[in-house]
Design a protein that fits this description.
Three copies of one chain form a homotrimer. By secondary structure, chain A is an alpha+beta fold. Chain A contains six helices and 15 strands. In chain A, strands 8, 9, 10, 11, 12, 13, 14 and 15 form an eight-stranded antiparallel β-sheet that branches. In chain A, strands 2-1-3-5-4-6-7 form a seven-stranded mixed β-sheet. In chain A, helix 1 (18-29) runs parallel beside helix 4 and helix 2 (47-57) packs parallel to helix 3.
């Protein structure tokens, strides 16, 4: 049988001992796990960014993968620790919207609130459920423990303030949901919304104080330093600069608008 | 049999080829190892910070784990390369205090100075014992080679200038030993020292120029932006800001004092 | 049989979902792989730096290791995706010079252009061949698929503008090709070139505005804060500051000259 795969996504950074502590806890329960980092550099306590990254990376993993995610400003408070079984995966983390986007995308089967203390250490820290609840549950789950034994079923997930783009008569108003390592600006306008809005009409895209006309198919179609719009590898409308950083050129930040305006019908 | 687990902690960063070279050397000796990074972002040549992180993360790993640690400003000089067998683990690295805290915490069984050149490459670099001594010893140890064959026994480890907190009549004077990714300030005052000093008396905690009254049980008990003190997930007194950075609010640095003052007896 | 080892080197950083997507794709094809990061912090689109790091780390891995590298400013354009079989390894990535140094060092056996769409997903993104071409080819290769089935043979690799040092009568003129995490300045002058030039003559080394006399054998021979030259653990002439950063002291950058001048013959 294949080794079970467990991914980790957190806002812990990689300087501290937090991520390694979680990995140690998992390996103590199941030393045969394959542990894969999605990222530990979610902006501190930024649930929306974590949700976007989890929903972007998780679908590429094999069926049966256990995705553990911790961006958890309300740790130790009233928010519930949960396990979500979806069509292909298990998602474990706080019920604060972090898992919702990825879980809905894959198709939710059932949700369990993690309450069974049998699977936790004798003392659960009030500030580090990643180590004391999510990691051990992932470890036992990877050993084949039935998801139902970790706690009671529930039927609702906390919704993420999801930031869908807004359709107006001549404009599609989206926003920057992620700025990547290259300074590319990823918007919340996906291929479907984009096509539905533009149809075959001519359009302009406004980002920062600049106007871009039309789409390129890839970076190679642009000249060095040229500001362009493309549909990126995840299917989102992206603003980029060939061999440069759109973020530096436009001086924008996450949450700033990306506006598509139709200038001629057919 | 389970795959042996080898952890790595260094101050090499993750931009260079150094960490990957060590992993390659280990895998060439034993391709079945599971390699886990504790961190590679110890502040360059900061032995005390490395020792703190190693002692914090190592206890969560399974019995038999081999912990390789390299923060090694004296590499190639008179400091000895060592292997420490403790109750549950093996610690490999330079004898400069880096391993001492973690090894003493787990209980030292015996110490070996790594001198047997049979297990090193023909030419040992004077600047990279991580790749040429510590990695191959970890690889062979993971194959079941007896620790004793790597060199001669010794009985003392270099002590770390450990920075224990100071007990005065009305004050317990500690210092900041680590600032984490969230800007939380971890002090060297642990739960035991703290309870022994405060008993059930009322106290104030001074950090930077601010005074904090009492402890919270977790971040969720605070309002957003509130400066609080808690006992953290490793059992140390920690200064934090709910959904913010105590380091930015207080403008303090590692080594700065954290002072607990008793203001009423019972 | 041992698990196949696949390494990854990119300029993607570790904040985004890109690296994890590649790992997911590989594990979906072959869940038994051992995945090792060389680095994901190559300066964005800096092919020469990537080539240096790949050539420095790759030789330490076991025979049969599959090295996947992606620094790919021309992704989706005319540059070819390739697989290079060398004496000990497989190198997969864009044919833009990135693989050339490492492949030549190990001895090129044959080169295949990756054109067989049978091994790609139905839609290949124009901006992310790492996920849609290089990762799946690595996955299938690790399952034992014959390199020849991925496409047609070719005989030439794009050459890297390799920056060999220049030999003059009294001077050997090199340049800084890498600045590491400690601020050490690695030059393109290797041990062989250095010995051939200096023979047993006395020499001075100029870096930034400072002159260094002679070589040390290691950092420990220097005083704290002293600026020194050594032959580093990869065999290159390196400028360093004991317990400090040569980069900060000299205020130099990658590409700046390192000049060895002979001041007396024999």
């Amino acid at each position: 049988m294949n080794n079970p795969i467990i991914t980790l996504l957190t806002d812990f950074g990689t300087k501290d001992h937090y991520v390694a502590s979680m990995k140690g806890v998992i390996l103590r329960i199941n030393p045969q796990c394959t542990l894969i980092d999605i990222t530990h550099h979610v902006s501190p306590q930024d649930i929306r960014e974590g949700a976007f990254l989890l929903a972007s990376a998780s679908p590429y993993f094999p069926k049966g993968t256990i995705h553990v995610s911790v961006v958890d400003p309300g740790v130790g408070g009233p928010r519930e620790p949960i396990l979500v079984k979806t069509t292909n995966y298990f998602f474990i983390g706080p019920d604060n919207g972090l898992l919702t986007l990825a879980a809905q995308k894959d198709g939710i089967k059932h949700i369990v609130v993690l309450t069974n203390k049998k699977y936790f250490p004798p003392e659960v820290s009030a500030t580090f459920h990643g180590r004391d609840i999510f990691a051990p549950v992932a470890g036992y789950l990877s050993l084949g423990v039935n998801p139902k034994v970790f706690g009671e079923k529930t039927h609702y997930l906390v919704e993420l303030d999801s930031g869908q783009p807004e359709f107006k008569r001549d404009q599609l108003i989206g926003e920057i949901i992620h700025i990547d390592n290259f300074g590319n600006l990823v918007s919340n306008i996906d291929q479907k919304a984009f096509s539905r809005f533009t149809k075959n009409r001519t359009f302009l895209i406004k980002a920062g104080k600049r106007i871009i006309k039309g789409l390129k198919r890839g970076y190679w179609e642009a000249k060095d330093g040229e500001l362009i719009a493309i549909l990126d590898s995840s299917g989102f409308l992206e603003i980029a600069v060939r061999e440069g950083s759109a973020q530096k050129v436009l001086k924008v930040k996450r949450g700033d608008p990306i506006i598509v305006t139709v200038i001629s019908g057919q």
